Amino acid sequence: MQKAVPFGTSVPALRQECVPAARDWAYFLLAVLAILIIATRIPLLPKYLYYFDSVNFALALEEFNPAKHQPQPPGYPGFVLLARAIYVVFPAPEIALGLAGLAAAVVALGLTWRTAQSMFGPEAGILAATLLALNPSFWFGGVTNEVRLCLALNSAAVGLICWHALQRPASRAWFFAACAIPGLLAVFRPVETVLLLPLVLFVWWRTRRTVADLLVGAVLTLAAALPWVAFTIDSCGGLRPAIDLMRSYGQSQFHSSSLLFGAPLGGAILMAKQAIVWNGTGAIAWIWAVPFARRIPNVAFLAVWFLPGFLFSALVHIGDPDQALLTIPVLCIAGGAILQTVLRAFDLPRLTATMVWILAANTVLFVLPPGRIARAASFNAVHSIDQRMQSVFVSIRELSAGGNTVALLHYGGIVTWRHLFYYFPQHRVTYLPTEQNEPCMTLFRRDLEDNQHCATQLAPAHRYILLAPHLNPDWLLQNGWHRHGLIYWRDAAPNLKLDIGPYHLRS
Question: DSSP assignment, residue 298?
């Protein structure tokens, strides 16, 4: 069995895994990083659900139904189950989802540490975990769309089991475990977990296993995934509805950014840039060390682990910074290995100083991101959207006080119609899409009330509240609307006519 030999042996505290004091010190540093994750996430958790998708997960806490986007396809039953368990104790969706994300983040941290330690040595393990803890995309995901932290968890878990299988070529049990784990973990994030299967094939090839072993492994992968797949299909109403749902959802997600789905070239180039920036921003903390690093082993393993997920992000879909979390643990492990080779002397102060540098650099990158694309994974992005959400909701509550019937009209913006119908189920919400291929809808008490007449007829109400951040404010004021914070309102009147973008609504 091949054993990773760390560069440098001058620090007794982290020199050998077999020394109890070394393990205790590594566990202490890991615990400090876990506490740091908790301390930096909880204060930043938005007061309201951050994304459209976050509302989907909140609804899934009450009813799991991917056909109704509770949550969005393909369903993520494992994360919903985890969040539901927390929801029993903390019956607030914002808290339940936030704590589920914290649990996934801490587990991902430990798995990344263990994988880097097994591959390159104890110092690389601690440095890789440090690189992950405050990585801007990892930090961002922990306070916005917590399910995506399962990408990092799945990636690190599959990487660890595959590494152990590679180091034990005579053990069929380890190889079969490496085949089963991706299917089992797909209960959290199924599509991206498929992108980890090339790493299993790499292990099969490098350990010179038989085709029969590969076929048995494939059966194990499918068998491990079968329970959650069957449950999700049943929740969608059957196989055909599930397939149609996934097809339409994929087309809606990919059509504007992937050349493979008919996107314009400009959208595809932007997505490729996003994949590079959201993966690479956290690498700034260690990329400077590459020219000074000694050659690190196991590059082929890291490349096979990293490239499928990265190419999917660059060519098929990456819509948000935390969707890069499938590949970011690989970069953190590579960074930990590279930094380990340039430390030269592994005394505690030098290691501690490197950890402090990493944490400080990633904090600066999260607070002061380098460029427009990187700003999407920053403190200001989280804070500004949370402030906007709070402002809009306070205005709606003030304008709807007094018992009069209120109808909410939504025409674009960060505060989505999904937020409105979730937080204000007592008001009718009319969604006026900004894209022609989407249907207009009026919803009431979280159910669809009308999708035929809502583009021309106003829902009955004493007062109309409009969210339309892209319309000219002066034009709105000149046409009878009144401004209240970030939204507009006007009272009902006989034969009222409202022109909102291309929509001409009449009472």
Answer: -
CA torsion sign, 271 to 245 to 73 to 446? Answer: positive
The answer to whether 333 touches 340, Cβ cutoff 8 Å, is no
Strand bridging mode 463-467 / 487-491: antiparallel
Q: What is the pLDDT of residues 364-420, one digit of tens each?
A: 999 999 999 999 999 999 999 999 999 999 999 999 998 889 999 999 999 999 999
Show the CA angle centred on residue 463, arms to residues 459 and 466, nearest 5°. Answer: 80
Rounded to the nearest angstrom, the gap between the alpha carbon of residue 51 and the centroid of all alpha carbons in its chain is 11
The maximal CA–CA distance of the chain, rounded, in angstroms, is 85
What whole-number distance in Å separates Cα of residue 97 and Cα of residue 84?
A: 9
Q: Where are the domains of the chain?
A: 12-377, 382-506
Do 8 and 344 form a contact (C-beta atoms < 8 A)?
yes
> Residue 464: helix, strand or coil by DSSP?
strand
Distance of CA 29 to the CA centre of its chain: 26
410 forms beta bridges with: 431, 467
Number of Cβ atoms within 10 Å of the Cβ of 298: 17
Residue 39 tokens, joined = 């301390």
Query: At 95, which amino acid appears?
Result: I
246-292 pLDDT, tens digit per residue, is: 777 777 777 777 888 887 899 899 999 999 999 999 999 999 999 98
Q: At 229, is the secondary structure helix, strand, or coil?
A: helix
Give the Å distances, CA to CA, from 288 to 203, 357, 488. 31, 12, 50
Side chain identity, residue 278: W
